[in-house]
Amino acid sequence: MASITVENLRKEYDAGSIVAVDDLSLEIPDGEFVTVVGPSGCGKTTTLRMLAGLERATDGKIYIGDEDVTDIHAKNRDVAMVFQNYALYPHKTVFENMEFGLRMSTDMGPDERRERVRDAAEMMGIEELLSDKPDELSGGQKQRVALGRAIVREPEVFLFDEPLSNLDAKLRTTMRTEIQRLQNQFGVTSIYVTHDQEEAMTMGDRIVILNDGKLQQTGAPKEVYENPVNEFVGGFIGSPSMNFLEVEATASGGGIDLTGVNGNFQYHLSSEYVQGLDQDISGSRFTLGIRPENVYPTNAASNKSFTTTVEVIEPVGSDNYLHLDVGEDFIARVDADVEPEDGDSIELSFDEHHIHLFSPDTGVDVL
Ligand code: ATP
Fold first, then answer.
1. ipTM confidence score
2. Stated pTM of the model
3. Domain 243-358, what architecture?
4. Mean pLDDT lowest for which of 76-85, 88-97, 234-243, 334-343?
5. Which residue ranges make up each domain of the chain?
6. Contact 265, 217 (CB under 8 A)
7. Which residues line ligand 1 at a C-beta cut-off of 6 Å?
8. Three-state secondary structure along 93-160?
9. Shortest CA distance to 196 belongs to which of 230, 221, 219?
10. Closest atom of ligand 1 relative to the 48 alpha carbon
């Protein structure tokens, strides 16, 4: 087992015209399970491939434990990578696929190799499949074999590149638990890349969010969810997405009125709230962020509620999503027994402590 340290990592393609990873620094302690998430093209796979030694960094350093592995060949790094497309050898049996890495990278004898493969196969529940070829297996079974092949080597680091993306939703949930169970059992430092923010949130001890090759934020899932550092993170993490409204702040009775720039929206921040801020926000424009689950219907109109029209009601079983007419996309996630008709007028409110105010220029959370 080992920690991983990444210092100012950079990867350019096409003579520098594409910057896939830009000045990325991370410290991953021994035994941690980190998920890396971000939209397509943000540099997740490139980062993982540099850690595995499959891609050469343009600049920066990678350490596994105390060892600088930046220029060390993939086969000499003690890491095992699991790929989305399984990367099994089609002409080899499951046993041979699992044994291959041991043959190549260790001087272990055949008896010990067989024992290791059998143990890993038992752990993954695939003992019955050892003499099958990959094309005789289902997607889920193939991924179990790929995981078995990774654990058989007992590496210092596991790297997962969207390993569940080709599986159906139900199997994905089962395999998530399986991977977490393995990681708990072995305690191996693991980096798991996914574009699915829900997967990243549920699996990671810590989540790393990338956009455009750059680190946006890293922290425990709950911390990132509750305190996004910028508008990108606020919008990317959470489903349905955080609502954003352009507002103008004006001083009012010791507090601040936030007025919608594009629609009929008004909300009053109390004087206590405003006094707790470390800057005077009156006179400025912001992007207000509020999560759909924090918006609730109320019967008592006040300066902390707003009246709007329900455009569409979207039932999702346990909750209803109300799509509202406030000049920009805006959703309230309410209990399933709140069932207004499309076109109904509704009074809604939220707690001022759930508000985020982002700078419209930089996207940074200013509070
Ligand atoms: P996805 O979720 O779609 O797999 P990603 O976050 O893993 O995306 P990367 O595959 O790391 O993103 O790609 C980051 C950027 O680098 C993208 O702009 C991509 O087009 C570019 N890129 C990746 N590999 C190469 C390559 N071999 N040659 C040129 N550009 C590349």
1. 0.97
2. 0.92
3. Beta Barrel (2.40)
4. 76-85
5. 4-233, 243-358
6. no
7. 13-14, 18, 20, 38, 40-46, 195
8. CHHHHHHHHHHHHCCCCHHHHHHHHHHHHHHHCCHHHCCCCHHHCCHHHHHHHHHHHHHHCCCCEEEE
9. 221
10. 11
